[in-house]
Amino acid sequence: MRARTLIGIALVSAALGACANDGETQVIPPVVLGMTETTAPAYDDGQMQIYESFLPVPLPLRRPSDEERPKGEADPYPRPPFHLAGDTRITARFTLSNLEDKPHTVELLIDPWNEFVRYSPGVVVGDEETTPNFSGIDRFFVLPPLGRVEGILTPDDIQELATDLGTAMKLDKQPPAADSDFAGPALYNRAFNIQNRSSRFDPLLAPFIPSVIAGIVGFDLGLRTYEPAKIAVEVILDVEDLSGDRVLPAGDDTRRVGRPGDTLTPPAAPMR
Fold first, then answer.
1. Of 231, 246, 142, 156, which Cα lies nearest the Cα of 194?
2. pLDDT digit string (tens) for 22-56?
3. What are phi and psi of 133, to 5 degrees?
4. Residue 56 CB: number of other CB atoms within 10 A?
């Protein structure tokens, strides 16, 4: 059984700061996601339980007008992207909080969207265990009793996230041979592995990195544990408009790109 459960969450969608058309930075009020100790497991095979909580977080980026919508080809995208990774500079500052008087190991998950698809990692079901595929950003933290851990995702991290999603789209469009050692989710997980950086040459992934990188327009924020836990994460996003006309002014949500309808999930591991 798998499900995505939203518990104890709050999202404020208005943006603060000056008009984005001036190329300035917008600071989006905190995005808060929580999980309680009564959350039902998202996965339970009788031996292992996985507890998850997710929240969609759209960025204040605008849709193109019909005249602006790019035409032509830009593999692996269905058309050239309007939002390029270099159009914005995004920073995410987060605080993980343990609301119980005992330690917890927590995964902070971010699964990216571009204007075409959103990434949904899924799991690898094996004979002996079930393992979640890597999220776009997938980091483990040990939270002390009633403690907090703070961190930051830099613009380089978000740039890498956009590149990895483009790479996943290329893998989906031109997958390795079914009998290859790299069939199934192997290269997807290699691309999204925290140690991977597209700036360092990888002969296995290089053929799948697009020459044009679609920018991130939002993401699914998630928490994961392997035991019941009462935890929360607060994320503050800074979105800087480098092109001068991609980020919406504060309060203008009618033209927002929003969450794409198409989902990209790695294929199942091949049967051996």
1. 156
2. 455 666 789 999 999 999 999 888 888 999 999 99
3. -65, 160
4. 17
